[in-house]
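Model: You mentioned two targets. I'll fold them one after the other.
Researcher: Yes, keep them separate.
Model: Target one:
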Amino acid sequence: MTLAQAIADALPRLAPVSDAPRQDAELLLGRLLGFSRAQLFSRLETPIPPATAAAFEVDLQRRARGEPVAYILGEWGFWTLVLSVSPAVLVPRPETEVLVEWALQCLLPLSTPRVADLGTGSGAIALALASERSDIRMTGVDLSGDALAVARGNGERLRLPVQWVQADFGEWLAAAPAHDLVVGNPPYIAARDPHLPALRFEPAMALTDGHDGLNALRAIIAAAPAALKPGGWLLLEHGYDQAEPVQQLLRDAGFIDVETRRDLGDQPRASGGRWVGAGR
């Protein structure tokens, strides 16, 4: 059997669980052979070694059960980085990059800005920002020690200086020094959201608050002013249908210049505002 045939045979098995079955098959097979997708494409007529075929079958079974490709590979791309991932953290998603872009715009006029990433998980946002701003004073905060172990490992491997803190968002914000920007991707999926079952391999505590999906967002918006300098920004990822309530929460808390940014799929994905109160 050639590599091309192995990929073709995998497609109907992956199609029920994947929006990109060919990409999944090529990534999984390429990892086993040590090939990039481009290298794999140039070798499609090469016979697949028996040991590779057996390992590929194991990976296909895992993917067919719905396990994310990123967990099978053990890594995933975000921004310009390749991050190690595990079931302790969410798989970094391209829609979250809108937060990175927005944060960099907010930080553009500032020197040595102090920034916090709440619910840092794999460290994706924190490390992306640190990779773009060598002068940043970056802190990644997460309640999960297992998640922070992944983030810390990514930071060490990429040699990016981020301080990692295990803490509850609200408690940490109450005692934090004054920040120029707080960014976060908290759990925002409602407990009864029909998409949750498809995400069963990812950590539930990072996906849902167990209620309406707004609890963590409410808590951060209420607590963030204490940790923001006057003029500091709060930027938060949320669900595609949560822009209006999140904007209202920001306005009610005293934030100005409130707006929502859309992701690459043109969905309203992040809302934020600027704090002009006394701050810390």
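Model: Target two:
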Amino acid sequence: MKKWKWYLTAFLCFCMVFGFLSPANAKTDNDEAAYVDVSVATLWTEPNIARDIDSPSLSNPVDMWKWTKSMTYEEKLWLVGNLETQALYGMKVTILEKRGDWAKVVVHGQPTPRHPLGYPGWMPIRQLTKGKVFAQFQAKPFAQVTSPTAWLYKDPKGNHKFMEISFNTRLPVVHSTKNAVKVMTPSDGAKWLKKEDVQIFRTEADIPSPTGEDLVNTAKQFLGLPYLWAGTSGFGFDCSGFTHTIYKAHGITIPRDSSVQAQFGIPVPESELQPGDLLFFAYNNGKGRIHHVGMYIGNGKMIHSPNSSTTVRIDDYRAPGYGEEFAGARRYIQK
């Protein structure tokens, strides 16, 4: 068993021991499985609280660039506390509840103490599909998007665009040619991806174990990408969505939120930091609640997605504003 699986098992056991995973939270016969049917689904704390400016993120298809680029700083700041997380095209969710045109779901593969199945939140029902045919392809090898974003095409030559999708999106492979990969989509049949934008794996366990440098190089692809609260995609990340997604793309599942990421992995003394280690920051001079995470890249620097006013960037982790709040480091890969 890969070492990351031991971490996830330990995390789930911790949640059960401390009562986070109660029988009341467990899946019932009334819960429904579904798949995300848009490039990026944004989950909200409650249904029907979105503003008019959020419309591009609520439709099917979505227009993520139109949404993120249309917001002012103040409008982005409003999202803080109103969004939960995001889910990528083809991700499996479990529907817990429906209220009008909205569904409360949990996103599989995003561990949290809040629910045993995954990360919870509300999203428009129109962005979900039962995906009965798609479900039959889940045991197939998958193509994982390795570019920050990539286009799905209607044809193998890439002449007719279908949808722009995110880094770390995984779609079952139907067929492969020299330059393109035919993949199955949740509700629109087979489409094509350029081979240069993906890697193909038989299972998640076949993703090579990364070095710290591998993680850092992947993270650096997103330098300059504007921050988005709750973001987990190549269209925008929050701090923990960034670290969670970079690790996930390398086959390592870590908790979704920084406060929980700080509880697992291996504690690392500051004098022994290595690239790929996660750095945590807390209120009350590093002794209070964890509120931020970055990835160490060496030479006293970290790459991170700081806040709604800026972008993915590199900073000295001991610089004013960070140094006094440093709360320790964790390692999720075997050195």
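Researcher: Noted. Anything on target two?
Model: Residues 1-6, 16-28 have pLDDT under 50 and may be disordered.
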